[in-house]
UniProtKB/TrEMBL annotation:
Involved in the assembly process of the P-ring formation. It may associate with FlgF on the rod constituting a structure essential for the P-ring assembly or may act as a modulator protein for the P-ring assembly. The gene is flgA. NCBIfam families: flgA_cterm. GO terms for cellular component: periplasmic space. Belongs to the FlgA family. Transmembrane segments: none annotated. One of its GO terms (biological process) is bacterial-type flagellum assembly. InterPro entries: Flagellar_FlgA, SAF, SAF_FlgA. It comes from Escherichia coli. Signal peptide: none annotated. This is Flagella basal body P-ring formation protein FlgA.
């Protein structure tokens, strides 16, 4: 029997079916590894964003869910990107987050769902009515579905006057009230000025 070359042995195995099966298995494993590597990177980034927003919303929301809306091929290339937001950005809803990997900057589109307490009217409140503990209450719900500038701290409403009619369970916004006037029209007041030149 003549000596078989390596190529002949490989061809013999392939004809027997064993080599073809091994080759198919190796290719399948390689394809699965390639397909799932962006998913594991996205999963790691999601947990980093979850931690980032949980820290940003500490004291406001006790339940935060984050989902990345950016395409996987546009995610940052490093394992631990430096995450930041501009100071005037909202902290929930659809937001943009800057992820830095060295000199590489990528903006990520992220959806943040936050659950916490917000202030609602406990009963009908007429325009010009005083907001006090008896006619407002805290309600728990999704903060990202509320109108902008909804009041989250009931202490912001101390001595506040409603600027419009409010219905029960209506979230109270910062634009719907003002602080009570400290001085009334016609009231006598003493003005004291001190300092150089007075």
């Amino acid at each position: 029997m003549p000596l078989m070359t390596i190529a002949d042995r490989y061809n013999l195995r392939c004809r027997n079916g064993w080599g073809a099966k091994m080759l198919a298995i190796k290719r399948s494993v390689a394809i699965i590894a390639i397909l799932f590597s962006p998913l594991s990177a996205a999963s790691n980034l999601t947990s980093q964003l979850q931690t980032f927003f949980s820290a940003q919303l500490a004291g406001v929301s006790d339940e935060v869910r984050v989902s990345i809306r950016t395409a996987p091929n546009l995610l940052p290339p490093c394992e631990q990107p430096l995450l930041s937001m501009s100071n005037n950005s909202r902290l929930w809803g659809n937001v943009n987050v800057l992820a830095r990997c060295g000199n590489d900057k990528r903006y990520l589109q992220v959806n943040v769902q936050a659950t916490g307490n917000y202030v609602v009217a406990a009963m009908p409140i007429a325009r010009g009515g005083k907001l006090e503990a008896g006619n407002v209450k805290l309600k728990r719900g999704r903060l990202d579905t509320l109108p902008p500038r909804t009041v989250l701290d009931i202490n912001q409403l101390v001595d506040a006057i409603s600027l419009r009619d409010l219905s029960p369970d209506q979230p109270i916004q910062l634009t719907q009230f003002r602080q009570a006037w400290r001085v009334k029209a016609g009231q006598r007041v003493n003005v004291i000025a001190s300092g150089d030149g007075f």
